[in-house]
Amino acid sequence: MSTATATLSHTAALARLGHALADPTRSGILLALRRAPAYPSDLADSLGVSRQVMSNQLACLRGCGLVESTPDGRRARYRLADAHLTSALDELLRVVLHVEPDCCAGDGCTCA
């Protein structure tokens, strides 16, 4: 694999992760799944969203290759698609909380 191809692959992967993390519900799902696999209904209840919203957000995360589902009877159980995501999310939390925990909070945000 050439350096250019690897760079494009890495860029695409980071863009997918960034897209996933840009939405508070998707971020909440990823953070919940880093602790343990879960059912969509449980995720919806814990994040305070409708089951339809949860279904849409899980479809997005599946499409990005970040989560996968496993059939469990009539239900599906979700987990992170790669174990490396757990440590990556943990590291991102450390960086974000260390750098500027109040950035982008409230009406004073200048990032938008």
Automatic annotation (TrEMBL):
Residue span, HTH arsR-type domain: 6-100
SMART domains: HTH_ARSR (SM00418)
InterPro entries: ArsR-like_HTH, HTH_ArsR_DNA-bd_dom, HTH_Metal-responsive_Reg, WH-like_DNA-bd_sf, WH_DNA-bd_sf
A GO term, aspect molecular function: lead ion binding
Gene3D superfamilies: Winged helix-like DNA-binding domain superfamily/Winged helix DNA-binding domain
One GO-annotated biological process of the protein: response to cadmium ion
The keyword Membrane is annotated on this UniProt entry: no
The organism's place on the tree of life at top rank: Bacteria
Keywords, in A-Z order: DNA-binding
UniProt-listed CDD domains: HTH_ARSR
Protein name, entry field: DNA-binding transcriptional ArsR family regulator
